[in-house]
């Protein structure tokens, strides 16, 4: 009978879980590691007899609460298989001497290109043309290009970033290659030191005043929760676009709904929504979209928190998450998240 030195729990399956990816993870952890794989909707669904054996917890999308942690007496490390840690009670983990780590950099290009794709889709009205041609009873009558307040070349527009870390910075680089003028606000990054061509501004409000395209790339913290509300949206130039591939709670959706209906915002693209673990009741804006409100559907694009998803990013998540857990259990501080950092 095999003698294992440690147990790692994957409580959720990855979208691309196969024998091949699982074999890679087992090789990285070593033969002395017992890997348990489940597919639960919440951590409380994990049986107690498993919880009592786990040394390392690999978290994809699950929430981790203090009550959850109480059930894992041997737990030494949690690796968030991604970047955002807002679903993890980091303070509770620290109280129990459980290290929390994340995996930044696994999909920087993936999220950045998704963001740029959403921007260009709105600018070129691709979504609106697609829907119109698909639904038209007579294709010949619908086969016509029409001017739109969104239709501008990038060189005529200012793209404003809230957050200029790995992903925001990569969005900026691609945007500048497309000839956008780029401005950014990030209180934690010396933008002038790391990036050429980006104009660094001192507040989010300063960015909003000049951003024809506002794109959000910030973690969810007490400071960023609701940071884009009615006041900030009123500062935007007429017919601005708003893109969010960060966290749903960063922007007030009722304020965005009002800004779209007033014409201040000509289009929005959201890859994230508030409280994605329990989407009902839906915000008014999303209800209108789901109900087929033509005014909103012409101006709103939704994707289901899929900006991170590509073959390459998933491969990176498997490898980098396992490597990070190995480091964590060896006492290394690779991508260690401290309480209050995010």
Automatic annotation (TrEMBL):
Q: Which residues form the D-isomer specific 2-hydroxyacid dehydrogenase NAD-binding domain?
A: 116-307
> Which residues belong to any copy of the D-isomer specific 2-hydroxyacid dehydrogenase catalytic domain?
22-334
Membrane-spanning residues where? none
MF GO annotations: NAD binding; oxidoreductase activity, acting on the CH-OH group of donors, NAD or NADP as acceptor
Q: Origin, by domain of life? A: Eukaryota
Pfam families reported for this sequence: 2-Hacid_dh, 2-Hacid_dh_C
Sorted UniProt keywords: NAD, Oxidoreductase
What family does this belong to? Answer: Belongs to the D-isomer specific 2-hydroxyacid dehydrogenase family.
Q: Which PANTHER family match?
A: D-ISOMER SPECIFIC 2-HYDROXYACID DEHYDROGENASE CATALYTIC DOMAIN-CONTAINING PROTEIN-RELATED (PTHR43761:SF1), D-ISOMER SPECIFIC 2-HYDROXYACID DEHYDROGENASE FAMILY PROTEIN (AFU_ORTHOLOGUE AFUA_1G13630) (PTHR43761)
This chain's protein is named 4-phosphoerythronate dehydrogenase
Q: Which organism is it from?
A: Mycena albidolilacea
């Amino acid at each position: 009978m095999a003698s294992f030195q440690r147990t790692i729990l994957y409580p959720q399956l990855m979208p691309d879980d196969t024998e091949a990816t699982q074999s890679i993870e087992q090789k990285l952890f070593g033969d002395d590691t017992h890997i348990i794989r489940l597919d639960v909707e919440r951590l409380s669904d994990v049986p107690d007899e498993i919880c009592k054996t786990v040394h390392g917890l690999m978290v994809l999308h699950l929430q981790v609460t203090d009550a959850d942690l109480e059930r894992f007496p041997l737990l030494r490390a949690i690796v968030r298989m991604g970047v955002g840690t807002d679903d993890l009670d980091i303070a509770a983990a620290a109280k129990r001497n459980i290290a929390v780590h994340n995996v930044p950099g696994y999909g920087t290009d993936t999220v950045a290109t998704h963001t740029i794709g959403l921007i260009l889709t709105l600018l070129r009205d691709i979504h609106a043309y697609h829907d119109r041609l698909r639904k038209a009873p007579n294709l010949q009558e619908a086969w016509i290009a029409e001017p739109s307040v969104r239709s501008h070349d990038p060189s005529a527009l200012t793209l404003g970033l809230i957050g200029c870390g790995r992903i925001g910075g990569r969005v900026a680089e691609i945007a500048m290659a497309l000839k956008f003028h780029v401005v950014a606000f990030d209180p934690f990054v010396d933008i002038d030191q790391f990036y050429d061509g980006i104009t660094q501004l001192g507040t989010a409000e300063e960015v909003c005043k000049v951003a024809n395209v506002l794109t959000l790339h910030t973690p969810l913290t007490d400071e960023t929760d609701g940071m884009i509300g009615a006041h900030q949206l009123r500062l935007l130039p007429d017919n601005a676009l708003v893109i969010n591939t960060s966290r749903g709670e960063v922007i007030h959706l009722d304020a965005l709904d009002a800004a779209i209906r007033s014409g201040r915002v000509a289009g929005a693209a959201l890859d994230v929504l508030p409280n994605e673990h329990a989407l009902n009741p839906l915000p008014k804006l999303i209800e209108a979209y789901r109900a087929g409100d033509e005014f909103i559907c012409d101006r709103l694009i939704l994707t289901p928190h899929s900006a991170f998803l590509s073959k390459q990013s998933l491969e990176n998540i498997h490898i980098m998450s396992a490597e990070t857990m190995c480091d964590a259990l060896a006492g290394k501080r690779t991508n260690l998240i401290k309480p209050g950092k995010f």
